[in-house]
Structure formats: structure tokens, C-alpha cells
Please model this.
Amino acid sequence: RAEDLVEIGTGPLSLRLVAAGDTSRSLQLLHERYQPGADTGPEMLQHLGEEAGVVVEGCLTLTVGDLVWELGPGDAYQFASTTPHRFQNLGTAPVVLVSASTPPTF
Model:
């Protein structure tokens, strides 16, 4: 249900968290939307755990360590979050993806 999604992003990066109020959860599920030019910031992210996701719309540029992938609708990814990583929308259309990570960071 839409009311179960809580917005935790700002500006051109929308992160809607499922079950935000459940502090006992061991899985984080996000509905993400990146407007053209949006990204997770100039610094690569790095934290404990694993991440996985599926691109629903648009073209997502995913950098994990020294590897860079261009992912489109239906493409999926999975990686250890201890490896520095970054998500970017370098295209002209919004990117929508659904992602999961464990343990939760939000």
C-alpha cells in the first residue's frame, strides 16, 4: 500500500522506505526514483551488508569498485556493500528501481 512507503530522500532523489517504523526488521526495501542528473553523491558509499535491486524504468549507471554498469529496465544487480559504490542517472528520463539491502541502513 502506498501509505506504507515513507519518503526519506530529498530533491531529485526519492527514496521511499517500506515499513520504516518497524525497528525489528533485518531487511530494507526501497522504491527509488532518480530524476535526470540525480545521484547518490560525489563520494562513493560504503557500509556493511549486501544490496540488490531491479531497474523498473530508465537507465541507471551503477559503479561498484572499479566496475561501471549501465542498467536498463529488467536488469538486476547484487553486490557486497563493503565495496565502494555509487548510483547515478546520467540520462534524460527518470530512473525507477526497487532495491533491498541487509542490514538496514535507514
Remarks:
- The mean pLDDT is 91.
- The CA atoms of residues 39 and 74 lie 20 Å apart.
